[in-house]
Specification:
mainly alpha; 2 strands
Length: 222
């Protein structure tokens, strides 16, 4: 019996780092605090955005976004633990950066009238009612989808299947933000930019420093 208890305890301890994902509801509560209109709201709409059609069928990939991110993180947890921790770090700092931008540079995207009572129209109206048309630049949907895609590209656990699935779903969600008229192209560019900036600062710079230090150590020993 004690052996069984010890085994269960060890299993729980192995799964304990999954509790770090509780940062998501905390960040979500912060988002609702800043998802309010301010005195000055800007527009980053370009002619290309105006030419992009509204397609209600993209409400489905847009709507499953957060569950997709959860699935990716759990996958990283079991297959590539460093990518799991890196993803949580990048998501947190990128989300907080977005919130900071929303407070001082709030943007909006005009929404079309949703016609029909089919499931996709109803889902679109649900999304529109749940999320105010503010806080668009940079896009949280886009940075997080790009983040997990970037992680799998660099992961030692990557293979043709998981790279194809994650890249395909991430690109579909990013596209959905445009076709759902929730975001514009500049929101996507800003989202990709902050992921690249923090990835460089948190992972590339320390790696360069370690390589430089190791090189200097070898030269000293020689």
């Amino acid at each position: 019996m004690s052996w069984l208890k010890n085994r269960d305890l060890k299993q729980l301890l192995r799964l304990a780092p999954l509790a770090l994902m509780l940062v998501f509801p905390f960040l979500g509560s912060l988002y609702h605090l800043v998802n309010q209109p301010t005195d000055k709201v800007y527009s980053l709409v370009t002619p290309l955005d105006q030419a992009t059609p509204f397609i209600k069928y993209f409400a489905l990939p847009y709507g499953v976004w957060i569950f997709y991110i959860y699935v990716c993180l759990v996958y990283f947890f079991f297959r590539d633990r460093p990518s799991y921790y890196r993803s949580l770090l990048v998501y947190t700092v990128c989300a907080l950066t977005c919130y900071g931008v929303y407070l001082v540079f709030q943007t909006t995207v005009p929404r079309p009238e949703v016609i029909g009572n089919d499931p996709f129209a109803q889902l679109t109206r649900f999304i529109y009612n749940r999320d105010q048309p503010f806080n668009c630049f940079p896009s949280i949907h886009c940075f997080s989808s790009y983040m997990v895609m970037r992680m799998i590209w660099k992961s030692p656990a990557r293979n043709r299947l998981n790279v194809t699935l994650i890249s395909g779903m991430s690109l579909l969600i990013i596209a959905s933000t445009l076709f759902m008229k929730q975001h514009v192209i500049m929101d996507v560019i800003g989202a990709i930019a902050i992921v690249e900036i923090y990835s460089f600062l948190f992972f590339k710079v320390p790696a360069l420093y370690r390589n430089k230090t190791a090189s200097q150590h070898r030269e000293f020993q020689a």
